[in-house]
């Protein structure tokens, strides 16, 4: 009989809405919260701060929700989700959960669960244990709503223990994360959820859990939560048919509401619904009628807010879209500015890297130049010392020659001096020339010839040089110098004195990296010598000729080919041709034979 009577009371209050309207304060918007939200919104728009704007809109939505205008509040919550989506924050998670409450009013339980799971993921990524506990609290309410509040489902839940185990697991999760965060409010919520579960299964442990929740909320100073807990106590006492305590509970909650001037829609609605249930069960019809009238007034106020919101929704949406467009434009400008700044920083970094690299290369180049200059000095010093040592040797031999009375011996020493002088000329060229490790045969050969002629006192010789600029290193220039020295000496001894017009011709050129040297005189030739035979055979037939042996040894050192030839009649004289490659031949083709100087 209680349910029809309750419906009758609600119907009567529709006909007489004035009853009971003065029992509780009007649920108007909190002006302080509205001003604070407006200030935050203006500041966020000026600073292009989407996070601050989300906080402002959340405050707007929460203020409208507390006043019972759920539709308007939900629009703000949706805006918060839109602008903060992808940016984990407490406001974004709370928007999902608070939107969840409003949707529950319209009976969309599945969306409740999905939104609560999204909020749980956000809080988990943020490692916010209080938030995780709050999300589990909403998930627990979803399970109770679909499995327990419906009487048919309640019977199934009693027959399927896994359902209550799932709810109990969620409640344990609330308690665990609340204890980790030391969150008194969520600890009390865990007690409330467990008490509600016990109450639906007629377990009187619900009263103990409610007492624990009441004490925690009271210690926290949360008056709204204290009123809600007392209302839950009234429902539990009513469930266990303890009517006196049920009436005391709703009276106590009403007194607290009046003393604390609580003007929250959910708190007021919860208390009045509990009063209607208790007064109808206790058959206190007058008080039941007054409570039902007040409840009807609250329902009407919410419906009125929804109607007002329907009229303003177009303008609100238009304003929201305009603000979102501004935010998107400002965000695009910020992204462009950020991209330009990143590009500038990247170019600056590249420029700095280029400068540093250039400096490193410059210092390396400078150091290399210093090392190169030092090496040049060392090479010059080495050549200079070799030249000085050769000159000392030449001086010693010259002194020794002056003390000799034997003419042939003195001649041999003089020839040796000429050979040493050719090597000294080479090192002087290496020391004085621009090329540290190379000499130019075009300069080197005439100087050797001039030195020999001056030393032997030969004059009135017509010199004909056909010399190309050929650069050689010391390892190859030394044998060439000794060969030219030896040929010039032989010409002075055997050719120039036996012809009235002595001529001496030297040709040197390079072709395909092969150097060719031709030395020709116009003397009487080499009497009794067959010049058509190879130089090696000529050496065997004239084993006592030191000059030819020396020439042959230098040819071998050059890995080249040499040959004496006679002039074509009626011309007279001897010509010597030498060919050698600038680069060494491939391995296996080197001449390994040597000339012995042991024979006298």
UniProtKB/TrEMBL annotation:
Domain Histidine kinase/HSP90-like ATPase positions: 467-552
Domain Signal transduction histidine kinase subgroup 2 dimerisation and phosphoacceptor: 381-453
Segments crossing the lipid bilayer: 343-365
Keywords attached to this entry: ATP-binding, Coiled coil, Kinase, Membrane, Nucleotide-binding, Phosphoprotein, TPR repeat, Transferase, Transmembrane, Transmembrane helix
Coiled-coil annotated spans: 315-342
Keyword Cell membrane: no
GO MF terms held by the record: ATP binding; protein histidine kinase activity
EC primary class: transferase
Enzyme Commission number(s) from the entry: 2.7.13.3
CDD domains: HATPase_RsbW-like
Chain positions of TPR repeats: 54-87
Pfam family, one: HisKA_2
InterPro entries: HATPase_C_sf, HATPase_dom, Sig_transdc_His_kin_sub2_dim/P, TPR-like_helical_dom_sf, TPR_rpt
Catalytic reaction list: ATP + protein L-histidine = ADP + protein N-phospho-L-histidine
Protein name per UniProt: histidine kinase
Species name: Dyadobacter fermentans (strain ATCC 700827 / DSM 18053 / CIP 107007 / KCTC 52180 / NS114)
Upper lineage: Bacteria, Pseudomonadati, Bacteroidota, Cytophagia, Cytophagales
């Amino acid at each position: 009989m209680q349910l029809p009577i309750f419906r009758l009371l609600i119907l009567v209050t529709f006909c007489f809405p004035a009853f009971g309207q003065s029992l509780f304060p009007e649920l108007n918007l909190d002006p302080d919260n509205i001003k604070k939200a407006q200030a935050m919104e203006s500041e966020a728009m000026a600073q292009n701060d989407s996070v601050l704007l989300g906080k402002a809109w959340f405050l707007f939505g929460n203020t409208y929700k507390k006043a019972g205008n759920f539709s308007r509040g939900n629009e703000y919550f949706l805006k918060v989700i839109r602008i903060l989506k992808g940016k984990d924050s407490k406001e974004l998670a709370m928007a999902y959960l608070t939107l969840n409450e409003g949707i529950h009013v319209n009976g969309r339980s599945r969306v409740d669960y999905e939104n609560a799971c999204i909020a749980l993921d956000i809080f988990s990524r943020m490692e916010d244990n209080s938030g995780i506990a709050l999300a589990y609290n909403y998930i627990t309410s979803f399970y109770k709503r679909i499995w327990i509040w419906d009487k048919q489902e309640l019977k199934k839940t009693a027959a399927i223990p896994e359902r209550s185990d799932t709810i109990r697991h969620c409640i344990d999760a609330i308690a665990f994360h609340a204890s980790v965060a030391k969150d008194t409010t969520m600890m009390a919520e865990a007690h409330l959820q467990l008490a509600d579960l016990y109450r639906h299964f007629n377990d009187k442990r619900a009263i103990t859990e409610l007492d624990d929740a009441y004490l925690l909320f009271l210690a926290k100073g949360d008056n709204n939560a204290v009123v809600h807990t007392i209302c839950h106590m009234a429902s539990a006492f009513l469930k266990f048919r303890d009517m006196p305590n049920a009436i005391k509970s709703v009276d106590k909650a009403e007194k607290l509401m009046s003393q604390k001037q609580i003007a929250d829609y959910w708190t007021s609605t919860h208390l009045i619904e509990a009063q209607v249930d208790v007064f109808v069960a206790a058959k206190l019809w007058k008080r039941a009628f007054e409570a039902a009238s007040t409840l009807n007034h609250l329902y009407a106020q919410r419906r009125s807010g929804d109607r007002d919101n329907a009229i303003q929704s177009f303008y609100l949406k238009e304003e929201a879209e305009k603000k979102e467009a501004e935010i998107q434009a400002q965000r695009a400008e910020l992204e462009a500015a950020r991209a330009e700044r990143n590009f500038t920083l990247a170019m600056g970094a590249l420029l700095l890297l280029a400068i540093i690299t250039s400096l490193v290369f410059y210092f390396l180049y400078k150091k290399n130049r210093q090392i190169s200059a030092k090496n040049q000095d060392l090479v010059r010093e080495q050549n200079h010392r070799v030249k000085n040592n050769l000159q000392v040797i030449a001086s010693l031999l010259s002194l020794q020659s002056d003390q000799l009375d034997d003419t042939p011996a003195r001649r041999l020493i003089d020839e040796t001096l000429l050979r040493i002088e050719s090597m000294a000329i080479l090192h002087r060229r290496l020391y004085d020339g621009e090329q540290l490790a190379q000499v130019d045969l075009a300069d080197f050969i005439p100087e050797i010839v001039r030195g020999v002629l001056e030393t032997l006192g030969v004059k009135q010789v017509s010199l004909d040089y056909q010399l190309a600029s050929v650069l050689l290193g010391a390892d190859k220039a030394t044998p060439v110098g000794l060969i030219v020295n030896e040929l010039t000496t032989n010409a002075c001894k055997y050719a120039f004195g036996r012809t009235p017009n002595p001529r001496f011709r030297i040709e040197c050129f390079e072709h395909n990296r092969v150097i060719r040297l031709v030395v020709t005189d116009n003397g009487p030739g080499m009497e009794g010598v067959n010049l058509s035979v190879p130089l090696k055979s000529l050496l065997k037939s004239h084993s006592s000729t030191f000059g030819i042996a020396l020439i042959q040894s230098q040819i071998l050192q050059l890995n080249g080919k040499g040959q004496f030839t006679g002039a074509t009649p009626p011309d007279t004289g001897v010509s010597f041709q030498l060919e050698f490659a600038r680069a060494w031949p491939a391995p296996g083709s080197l001449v390994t034979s040597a000339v012995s100087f042991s024979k006298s």
